Amino acid sequence: MSFLKKLFGGAALDGSKLAASTDKAEMAQIELLAHFATPNALHSDGDQTRWSRILPQPYAETIKLFEKQGWLQMSGGKYQATASAQPFVEQYRKRQAADKSAVLPKVRKALQGKDTSEALELRRAYESRQPLGIADWTGPEPQLSHSALTRRILFMQHWLLDGLSKESVEWLKLYAAEQHLWGANWKLKPEEIPDSVQTELAGSGLPVSEAAYWKAYQMALYVDNHETWQRCKGGDHVRRIEIKALQTENLCPACAALNGKDFLVARTPELPLKECTCPQGCLLRYEPVLESYETAN
Ligand SMILES: [Zn+2]
Fold first, then answer.
1. In this structure, is residue 126 part of a structural domain?
2. Residue 68 falls within a domain, yes or no?
3. Model pTM score
4. Helix (H) and strand (E) counts for the chain?
5. Which of 39, 60, 244, 274 has a CA-to-CA distance to 159 between 20 and 30 Å?
6. 158 CA distance to ligand 1 centroid (A)?
7. Residue 264 and residue 182 in one domain
8. For residue 281, how far is its CA from the centre of ligand 1 (angstroms)?
């Protein structure tokens, strides 16, 4: 297809073919169209540049092309996919959802086998199949140490797990590791949570989905906090650590007393706080205090 033909019409796009393609430039066009499934403004300049790198033609050209195809229309400064474009968006979304439901059990299986490197490989391969190299539901680009940290969850021994049966501990570790691996958090339906976990977490006073979610959340948070502390202790650049609450509403007195305070690394209180009485458990996080060159000297 010539440049002129592309620009001045005649280039009828095959939406169904693009939505089913494994070619990223082709997929990207429907992914972009899906962004306008509900009325939306154009992307920021920076994002348009990122899109332009993967689309077959620059971002602005693609928008024009979509309008010419009758796939996109503008009203009130916003763009929206037309009724004739919606089936391609639907087709693309279904295909993306199928890809997600195919990879999740594979990652779970790798984690069950304690192979966190394999699990991270699966995540990376999944994300690299996405047109922009990222999925809309996963966390930020994982650090090099990511799979090693996920692994620590699978082997953690901590008072957070006191009073739980071996079976429940194993299940919670898998749940926490899975979420940590993906950098995403999700709640489960009660029927997806084993009876032992339901019974053993009943004392928390939270509905079972919440109780399991926050217990797993705390386990991953413990591993991340511990890593932050070790990194600060071993480095020369950070002298102080700040303690920050995930959310500031309804903090127990112990958490409220520490939230927002910073400490010399060696004197930083250990998290989670044993005396915490927050309903979801202690959700305090360490944040290295980055000092400017002047104040650090
Ligand atoms: Zn608390």
1. no
2. yes
3. 0.87
4. 13, 5
5. 244
6. 17
7. yes
8. 6
Is there a domain that residue 270 lies in? yes
Report the separation in Å between the CA atom of 276 and the middle of ligand 1, taken as the mean of its atom positions: 4
CATH number of the domain within which 71 lies: 1.10.10
User: Is the model's pLDDT at 8 over the cut of 80?
Assistant: no
Q: Tens of pLDDT along 59-103?
A: 999 999 999 999 999 988 899 999 999 999 999 999 999 999 999
Q: For residues 173 and 156, give the distance between their C-alpha atoms in angstroms, rounded to a whole number.
A: 8
d(Cα 185, Cα 175) in Å, to the nearest integer? 10
d(CA 140, CA 121): 15
| Segments forming the whole domain that contains residue 258 | 139-288
Annotate 146-173 with b (16+ C-beta within 10 A) or e (fewer): bbebbbbbbebeeebbeebeeebbebbb
Same domain, 173 and 264: yes
Same domain? For 72 and 179 the reply is no
CA of 145 to the centre of ligand 1 (A): 29
At residue 296 the predicted structure's pLDDT band, cuts being 50, 70 and 90, is very low
User: Does any domain span residue 130?
Assistant: no
As a whole number of angstroms, the distance between CA 136 and CA 6 comes to 30
> How many angstroms is it from 272 CA to the middle of ligand 1?
9
CA of 243 to the centre of ligand 1 (A): 12
Give the distance (Å) from ligand 1 centre to CA of residue 204: 13
The Å distance, Cα 297 to ligand 1 centre, comes to 35
* CA separation for the pair 217, 17 (Å, rounded): 41
The CA 48 to ligand 1 mean position distance, Å, reads 43
Co-location of 86 and 162 in the same domain: no
pLDDT above 70: residue 205: yes
At which of 31, 56, 90 does a domain end? Answer: 90
Same domain? For 74 and 189 the reply is no
Q: What angle do CA 267, 153, 285 make, to 5 degrees?
A: 35
